[in-house]
Design brief:
The chain is an alpha+beta fold. The protein is 67% helix and 6% strand.
Length: 613
């Protein structure tokens, strides 16, 4: 039996600022819906700008609860309120961007969702909000994703975004997002070398800022582009790096799945079908570790083809059927359908699907060659334009370059004809075994899988950052380590499912007491860490005591079982100053140990430096 728990919001908000601070601390979709229902009756009492922000928050809440029509309606209402203000507010930019995304989900038509993104850019240019402008420009670039004629427009938009980032000294992560978007532009126009180069630049920037998730994402993209370019050694190096990260960062649960997935694709494209089967089977064995169902299904499709190429027809038929049963988009279905049609001895229809795949492959090959030729001509044209602006004595060199361009263009045309012919010959034999995998940005994995609060790695990273920030401002900084008392007997007597419910409900009780800027994370099985910037020793102890009392007063019901749970807490403050965050954790952990040995269900402060010697 699955026990659902929705936090009861009991704090009465006198204004939107108080209510919004509470909203920022909510994690579950159900809790956010409860927040909307509680405060919506009060909205008309708030100033117009607060109403606008409320409806924007409501739109975000409906979006994550899959009510796209409702979310769209709220973003429209938010935009109308923002536009009624005497001055432009940056929230208008965010609402326009979010409205455009709802329209994208509903229509996937650029002419429908792009006007809102264009308006967002126009509004952002009118106010001093460089972060909003860069974000709006990046979103606008996706309006020029397809068609080589749009490539220059998309690149111009991203060039302006890059200028905004540089001129305002914004974080490297913003520039990395621009490089990533640029790579997507080139990739979607089948200009794979440029796509690879920009993914590589984004990768390096995210390495510099230690963004583990996005470093991994870029390795995934770089591997795909290296495969498209036939650069097998580079692809193999990227696959090895993916496996190394999966081994090192075990908190990111789906890293191993994607390492196996990329290894399978590399083997598949090299026609090493035995290795492809091994890697894809390993990936599918880990499918429950990732929410990326698109890539899970791609693994099924490629595994079906690899089985078929190896003559394992029963396995191929079963996997092809599995793929088609789970394919939501109904794209790239030709290969699995051919395999199933062969299984049914329906050779005539299989041949019909094969020729459709052949025609599509040939058209894609022509587009690839056309884009590559156009890009070379564009680059060469830029070279000539620069030379024409130089002194007149270089005119002879320009004429020589123009002659060289004509000769190269002639050779390119000949090469184009040869390449298209070769692709056609290869397609007759192998086209129905080929596939083109779509890429999808992975969500950042910084939260604990069970409780949806920060995981160990992320809470410790944030703790180091907050400590340095508080030290630079000469502010207090406190931490609380919380451990559930006698948790192992609960698991032993009632089972791990009950233990999981206990952990989640205890987390709900602890999280309800957090204020804006404070953070809670899970650092062990039943152990948690609370970060309290600008909180002194006395306030930290009061917060810890409030958490202890709230947990003890909350009766947890699981099925027909009712449990009273207590926690022990250790409190440490950065007084006297510590050398690093780990030293502060050590103080809090020692205080927790004393709370446990003194009888549990209590708060103990860290001893002074002299007392702990």
């Amino acid at each position: 039996m699955v026990v659902m728990c929705i936090i009861s919001i009991t704090t009465s908000a006198a204004d939107f600022e108080t209510a919004d601070a509470q909203f920022q601390n909510l994690k579950s979709d159900q809790d956010k819906l409860a927040w909307v229902k509680k405060y919506e009756p009060e909205v008309t009492q708030w100033p117009t700008i607060d109403q606008a922000y409320f409806y924007h928050r409501k739109g975000l809440t409906l979006e994550v609860n899959d009510d796209i029509d409702g979310a769209k309606e709220q973003f429209v209402k938010s935009i109308q309120l923002f536009k009624s203000l005497d001055e432009i507010d940056p929230g208008l930019v965010a609402s326009l961007i979010d409205l455009s995304y709802m329209k994208y989900l509903q229509t996937n038509e650029a002419k429908v969702y792009c006007p809102d993104r264009q308006e967002a850019v126009t509004v952002a240019r009118q106010i001093d909000a460089p972060i909003k402008l860069a974000d709006a420009l990046i979103q606008l670039s996706y309006c020029y994703q397809f068609g080589f004629e749009n490539l220059a427009k998309g690149l111009a938009v991203l060039e302006e975004a890059a200028s905004v980032v540089h001129e305002n000294n914004l974080a490297k992560g913003g520039l990395a997002m621009i490089y990533n978007a640029t790579g997507n532009l080139y990739r979607n126009n089948q200009v794979h070398q440029q796509a690879y180069d920009y993914y590589q630049q984004a990768h390096q920037l995210w390495v510099d800022v230690d963004d583990t998730q996005d470093v991994f994402n870029m390795l995934h993209n770089m591997n795909s582009e290296a495969i498209e370019l036939g650069k097998w050694q580079q692809a193999e190096a990227h696959v090895n790096d993916l496996f190394a990260m999966a081994e090192k960062y075990t908190d990111f649960s789906d890293f191993r799945f994607f390492a196996e997935f990329n290894a399978g694709r590399l083997a598949f494209e090299q026609q090493n079908f035995s290795q492809a089967v091994e890697s894809y089977e390993a990936a599918l064995a880990l499918q429950d570790t990732t929410p990326e169902v698109y890539f899970v299904n791609i693994a099924r499709r490629n595994l079906a083809t690899a089985y078929f190429r190896l003559g394992h027809h029963d396995e191929a038929f079963q996997m092809a059927k599995n793929y088609l049963d789970n394919d939501i988009s109904q794209t790239d279905t030709e290969l699995p359908r051919i395999i199933l049609l062969f299984a049914e001895n329906n050779h005539e229809q299989a041949l019909e699907v094969f020729w459709k795949l052949f025609d599509n492959t040939r058209a894609n090959n022509r587009e690839f060659v056309k884009n590559a030729v156009a890009l070379q001509a564009l680059n060469f044209g830029e070279t000539i334009d620069k030379l024409q602006n130089q002194a007149s004595q270089q005119q002879l060199a320009i004429k020589e370059l123009e002659l060289e361009q004509q000769q190269k263009q002639s050779r390119i045309n000949q090469l184009t004809a040869v390449v298209v012919g070769l692709f056609a010959m290869v397609a007759v034999i192998t086209a129905w075994f080929l596939y083109r995998s779509k890429k999808h940005h992975q969500s950042r994995a910084r939260t604990d899988y069970l409780t949806h609060i920060a995981n160990r790695r992320h809470i410790i990273q944030e703790g180091r950052r907050m400590l340095l920030q508080c030290q630079s401002k000469q502010q207090d900084f406190s931490v609380i380590i919380i451990d559930i008392d006698d948790f192992k007997p609960i698991n032993d007597e009632y089972g791990h499912a009950t233990g999981d419910v206990v952990i989640k409900q205890v987390v709900n009780s602890m999280r309800a007491g957090l204020s804006d800027g404070q953070m809670l994370g899970r650092i062990g099985g039943e152990e948690f860490l609370m970060l309290l910037p600008n909180i002194n020793k006395g306030r930290a102890h009061a917060i810890a005591e409030h958490v202890r009392q709230h947990v003890a007063d909350t009766l947890i019901a699981v099925d027909e079982i009712q449990l009273s749970i207590t926690v022990s807490l250790g409190v440490a403050v950065n007084q006297p100053p510590v050398a690093n965050f780990e030293e502060l954790l050590r103080r809090a952990d020692e205080a927790l140990y004393r709370a446990k040995t003194a009888g549990k269900n209590q708060v103990q402060p860290a001893l002074s430096a002299s007392a702990s010697l």
